[in-house]
Amino acid sequence: MASLDDVVAALERLYPPALAESWDAVGLVCGDPDADVGRVLFAVDPVVTVVDEALAWGAGLVLTHHPLFLRPVHGVPATTPKGRLVHRLITGGCGLYVAHTNADRAAPGVNDALAAALGLERTQPLVPADAADPAVGLGRVGALATPEPLAEFVKRVVRGLPPTAAGVRAMGDPDTVVGTVAVCGGAGDSLLDTVKAAGVDAYVTADLRHHPSSEAGESGGPALVDVAHWASEWPWLADAAARLAAELSSRGSTVETRVSSTPTDPWTMHESS
């Protein structure tokens, strides 16, 4: 069994906090570094259902991609929803750790897992980081082994990601041939100009807004494929769980890992119009 301090050190080797955005809040949120950790649950969101699952399983740590606290707070009373989560975790002997934009940029990280889920090969960062490792950076650009029409590529995206109520939307000619693809897990419309400059055939990301998407299409940008935010980041969980277990094992510690079975996409209904 590893200590929480051992687990945190392993996670920070895999997903260095220095890679995080300056506005981000990554790292240990709560937990005793000296506590033993036998089980680690991986999830995208730190929400009630995930904490329920972690405590029922007897996890000593929950690792989430999204932060519980992104803005500074002056207290965590159990009179607030987030405060109650912290109190439940502490009372249940379970810590919480966040790997967010550092996991987005890490190699391998969130975007490598998304690219792999779509069958992309020969991937490289869409926005390289100022790092010694050229594989580190935001987003990924890669190629399909065999180009295919956009309509077929959208079906590929559906098969590669977990199902959601909203499904997958696309913008572009269904017959457009897709051979090269850019991906960015999470909200990615801030990278639309970068994607256009990369010259790819399609861009897969989440939370695309009306005006930026319309303007990208009008300016000759690539086909756009819009997926659920949660779904775009979910493929990373299994990869992170396996890498943490292997990293600790290489140093003589053992933990049991599990990917949360709880979908945390906030959208639960959809009706086609």
Automatic annotation (TrEMBL):
Residues 249-273 are annotated as: Disordered. It comes from Jiangella asiatica. The lineage of its organism: Bacteria, Bacillati, Actinomycetota, Actinomycetes, Jiangellales. One of its GO terms (molecular function) is metal ion binding. Keywords: Metal-binding. Homohexamer. Belongs to the GTP cyclohydrolase I type 2/NIF3 family. This is GTP cyclohydrolase 1 type 2 homolog. One of its GO terms (cellular component) is cytoplasm. NCBIfam families: YbgI_SA1388. Residues 250-273 have a biased composition (Polar residues). Pfam families: DUF34_NIF3. A divalent metal cation binds at H65, H66, D104, H229, E233.
